[in-house]
Structure to design on (328 residues):
């Protein structure tokens, strides 16, 4: 197993619920760390009696939602200024940027919901949703619904795999790929519909 | 039109890959279920399944003594005494850290911990 994952697992065993909250928050806010594997492992630890499964689910859910909302609000409040400062002024006036903003605004519910399962891209979606000025209410409802489903799926997988979670990582990776291809298919179809509607207008 | 065809084609291909992966995932799920891999927890009872010495082979360097004591149901000071651990952070310390502190190889130390767990279980099991 990778040394990063080993360190994160040790961190979870040492700091228990605070560790889980922290990693869920950071992974939702900015860092693409292996949060799904960590959540599955925490479910496994709960299965063995080291942690409580309900506390694992609640704490991870709270950390994830708080990370999503923080990323969204920072992008909405300071995103444009930050992009100007770091030299992306030209990008902000580009056609592709405007098109992306329009697409995100039009398909915010499904995009926000499905991206929760792809922990590597969800921080970027939070920032783009904030920059595109997706209404906070819409973002919050669909991010919370997506995170709840994600936490229940991976937490329960770990809980029912118990001490076998590590030997069945292939099963979890395949589950992740299923969700990734589903998300990609839906996004591509939505982009197609978005472009078609735009051309009709 | 030329731009739309590749997008639709790409969506079709990813949808096909999704269906193939989903079918393979369901097969794996069924296989694991039939193989008895899933732990049969009572729903909503949060019943835990502590480990037995048979599971001692799963011990790894990132695990803490706190965790090992709990899941193998060992007395809190058993491993501390057995390995003469002086660290004040015990049991909230990883096996890898203690092995490094004692300048021993991790593999050697892990084998010793596994043996100690099996020995404890053998001594506490009534003959």
């Amino acid at each position: 197993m990778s040394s990063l994952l080993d360190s994160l697992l040790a961190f979870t065993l040492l700091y228990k619920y605070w560790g889980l909250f922290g990693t869920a928050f950071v992974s939702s806010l900015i860092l693409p760390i292996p949060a799904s594997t960590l959540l599955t492992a925490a479910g496994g630890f709960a299965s063995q009696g080291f942690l409580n499964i309900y506390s694992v689910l609640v704490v991870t859910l709270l950390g994830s939602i708080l990370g999503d909302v923080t990323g969204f609000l920072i992008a909405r409040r300071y995103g444009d200024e930050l992009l100007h400062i770091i030299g992306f002024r030209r990008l902000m006036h580009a056609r592709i940027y405007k098109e992306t903003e329009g697409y995100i605004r039009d398909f915010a519910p499904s995009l926000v919901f499905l991206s929760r399962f792809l922990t590597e891209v969800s921080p970027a979606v939070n920032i783009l949703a904030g920059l595109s000025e997706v209404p906070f209410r819409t973002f919050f409802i669909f991010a919370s619904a997506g995170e709840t489903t994600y936490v229940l799926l991976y937490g329960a997988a770990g809980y029912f795999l118990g001490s076998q979670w590590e030997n069945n990582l292939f099963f979890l990776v395949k589950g992740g790929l299923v969700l990734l291809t589903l998300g990609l298919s839906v996004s591509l179809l939505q982009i197609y519909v978005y472009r078609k509607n735009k051309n009709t207008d | 039109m030329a731009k739309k065809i590749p997008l639709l084609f790409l969506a079709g291909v990813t949808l096909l890959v999704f269906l193939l992966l989903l079918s393979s995932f369901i097969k794996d799920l069924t296989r694991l279920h039939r193989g008895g891999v899933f732990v049969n927890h009572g729903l909503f009872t949060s019943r835990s399944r502590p480990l037995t010495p048979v599971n001692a082979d799963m011990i790894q360097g990132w695990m803490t003594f706190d965790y090992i004591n709990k899941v193998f149901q060992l007395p809190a000071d058993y491993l501390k005494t057995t390995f003469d651990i002086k660290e004040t952070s015990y049991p909230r310390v990883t096996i890898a850290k203690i092995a490094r502190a004692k300048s021993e190889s991790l593999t050697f130390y892990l084998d010793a911990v596994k043996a100690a767990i099996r020995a404890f279980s053998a001594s506490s099991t009534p003959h």
